[in-house]
Amino acid sequence: MQRSSAPCLPALALAALLAAPAPALAYWQWRDANGHMVYSDVPPSTAAARVLRAPGRHAGDLQPAQAAQPADAATPAAPAAKAPAKPTAPTPEEAFQKRREASLKAAAEEARRESDAAERAARCAQLRNYATGLQQGMRAAVAGPDGSLQHLNSEQRQAEILKTSANLEKHCS
């Protein structure tokens, strides 16, 4: 039996797949003031010592505004007018917490809506059952002023059927 030295087709396909460049990930990488490595999808605040990776940039190309100024440029020659303070960008942790809170709030609102819909469906089912029972002539009673049960006569039954039908149209349509 002779062996061929040519690689098989699945091996070539696997090699081509592994050699293809991976899609670029849009994330920031920097070291914080404590020297810890930070990875985030949000740019760092100016407190970051050095940005190591930024989306679309090579490592080290992006420096925080404080580090990019030369030492002799620290003292301005002419006093500048005070600019209004710009709001600082949220830290990655604050941005994450804000997104997390919004997600939790949306999930809680969705759960509340689903719960309300389930309760409404249950109330409507009970009301439909009651209306069906009234229309089929089942005995029905209401509580009297003293708490005792008083069975409905035909006029009261007709009024109760109309009232129940109106409630069904209003709340369960």
Secondary-structure element string: HEEEHHEEH
- Mean pLDDT, nearest integer? 77
Low-confidence stretches: 64-71
Q: Structural class of the helices, strands and pairings? A: mainly alpha
User: What's the count of strands?
Assistant: 5
In short:
It is built from four helices and five strands; from the N terminus they run αβββααββα.
Task: Show the helix and strand layout.
Blueprint: H1 9-19, E1 28-31, E2 37-40, E3 50-53, H2 65-68, H3 92-135, E4 141-143, E5 149-151, H4 154-171
Antiparallel strand pairs: 1-2, 1-3, 4-5
Helix pairs in contact: 3-4
Explain what this protein looks like in three dimensions:
By secondary structure, the chain is mainly alpha-helical. Among the domains are: 34 residues, no CATH class; 83 residues, no CATH class. Helices cover 45% and strands 10% of the residues. It is built from four helices and five strands. Strands 2-1-3 form a three-stranded antiparallel β-sheet, with no helix packed on it. A two-stranded antiparallel ribbon has the order 4-5. β4 and β5 form a beta hairpin. The termini are far apart. It comes from Cupriavidus taiwanensis. Keywords: Signal. This is DUF4124 domain-containing protein. InterPro entries: DUF4124 (IPR025392).
